[in-house]
Amino acid sequence: MLVLLAGIFVVHIATVIMLFVSTIANVWMVGTSSYATISTGLWLLCNRTCTQLPVSSQDEASLKAVQAFMILSIIFSVVALVLFIIQLFTLEKGKRFYMTGAVMLVCWMCILIAVSIYTARFTHTVVFATNPHHGYCFILAWICFCFSFIIGILYLVLRKK
């Protein structure tokens, strides 16, 4: 049981780190131009230097929603990690990890909403670029989506042990 809890803890920390990286780095979409590689993220457009991400007025609300839900997912993931540590040492068996699992599933839902909006609105929209494709931050966000769901379900299953 202790090895399982340690494994879940390590995966949870890895998920928090990957969420930070995917939210902060500007490599959600990547494309090539005649002189450089262009990448866009949630915040900036980068080729040789980074500038403010140009967004049309109709897509601005969608981008703000993606930014907000990614930040919320980081907050909920960190809160779930703190709750896990607190509940591990303070609650008795059978009552542990209800809140941790619930908060992690809220984190999962925030990631789902953010990445789904980004996929629907901003896929293949690298400005002045040919051959656009998804960058590593987009892929990390989907990996965090999977990990947070698995961790949330495991916390709810482990409450009985």
Automatic annotation (TrEMBL):
Keywords, ordered alphabetically: Glycoprotein, Membrane, Transmembrane, Transmembrane helix
Subcellular location: Membrane
Membrane-related topology note: Multi-pass membrane protein
Pfam family, one: PMP22_Claudin
Principal location listed in the UniProt entry: membrane
Superkingdom as given in the UniProt entry: Eukaryota
Transmembrane segments: 7-29, 65-85, 97-118, 138-158
GO cellular component terms attached to this protein's record: plasma membrane
Stated family: Belongs to the PMP-22/EMP/MP20 family.
PANTHER family xrefs: EPITHELIAL MEMBRANE PROTEIN 1 (PTHR10671:SF6), EPITHELIAL MEMBRANE PROTEIN-RELATED (PTHR10671)
Name of protein: Epithelial membrane protein 1
Lineage: Eukaryota, Metazoa, Chordata, Craniata, Vertebrata
